[in-house]
């Protein structure tokens, strides 16, 4: 619940054993001492058992059992996007906090409903990519706040890649990732320019953002 103080690691139940789960579970085991993944679930029980063995997780359960397990204080939701709402909604409804991979749901209205329900139940609801809430960026923020690098005067990031052309796939959402990474660090000037040119010339973009 919001406002609770923890001296012991928060007991987490993970739901979903996709490829991205390796990043989350490795970080929880090796880098985030304040989290303890006590159970993992997947519709494919064999895959869940494989992850449990690899990341020293004591129990494998059905998804609904992880949600209802009284030991679990928070849910890490790594299900496919189409299953996010049906996993997060009952978790919040019973008063358990959730962090989920992006997107939070398949439809904007579903995301609005989850936010409303979380506020009503007084629980935490977080949604972000593994990079934003991962060990790397969280360590950067901790060092930044501690003044470990002195007074920052500027920062930059660049990503260049050739996107695949299989059936004109939509561009992967990398630029928003980089913008969000910058957003989490205090900016004394409240000013962040950004520019991008996707693979498709018809979608050229020149973005300029100023925080309110």
Q: TL;DR?
A:
Helices cover 36% and strands 16% of the residues.
General description of the model:
The protein is built from 8 helices and 8 strands, in the order E-H-E-H-E-H-E-H-E-H-E-H-H-H-E-E. The strands form 2 sheets. A 6-stranded parallel β-sheet has the order 3-2-1-4-5-6, with helices on both faces. Strands 7-8 form a two-stranded antiparallel sheet. Helix content is 36%, strand content 16%. Helix 4 (84-93) runs parallel beside helix 5 (108-121). The chain has 212 residues and is α/β, with parallel strands linked by helices. Helix 5 links the parallel strand 5 and strand 6 (125-127). The protein is globular.
Largest sheet: 6 strands, parallel
**Radius of gyration based on Cα positions:** 19 Å
The total strand number stands at: 8
| SSE topology string | EHEHEHEHEHEHHHEE
Strand content: 15-25%
Which term fits the overall shape? globular
Distance between the termini: 30 Å
Low-confidence stretches: 165-173, 199-212
Judged by helices, strands and strand pairing, the structural class is alpha/beta
Q: Helicity level, as a percent range?
A: 25-40%
Order of strands, main sheet, comes to 3-2-1-4-5-6
Average pLDDT number: 79
Helical segment count: 8
């Amino acid at each position: 619940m919001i406002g609770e103080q923890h001296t012991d690691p928060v007991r987490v139940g993970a739901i979903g054993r996709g490829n991205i789960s390796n990043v989350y579970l490795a970080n929880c085991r090796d880098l985030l001492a304040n989290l303890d993944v006590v159970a993992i679930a997947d519709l494919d029980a064999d895959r869940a058992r494989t992850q449990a063995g690899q990341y020293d997780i004591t129990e494998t359960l059905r998804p609904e059992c992880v949600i209802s397990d009284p030991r679990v204080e928070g849910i890490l939701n790594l299900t496919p996007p189409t299953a996010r709402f049906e996993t997060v909604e009952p978790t919040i409804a019973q008063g358990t906090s959730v962090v989920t991979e992006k997107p939070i749901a398949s439809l904007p209205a579903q995301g609005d409903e989850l936010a409303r329900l979380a506020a009503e139940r007084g629980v935490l609801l977080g949604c972000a990519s593994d990079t934003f809430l991962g060990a790397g960026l969280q360590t950067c923020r901790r060092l930044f706040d501690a003044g470990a690098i002195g007074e920052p005067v500027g920062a930059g990031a660049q990503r260049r890649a050739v996107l695949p052309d299989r059936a004109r796939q939509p561009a992967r959402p990398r630029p928003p990732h980089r913008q969000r990474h910058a957003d989490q660090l205090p900016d004394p000037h409240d000013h962040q320019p950004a520019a991008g040119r996707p693979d498709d010339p018809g979608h050229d973009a020149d973005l300029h953002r100023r925080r309110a």
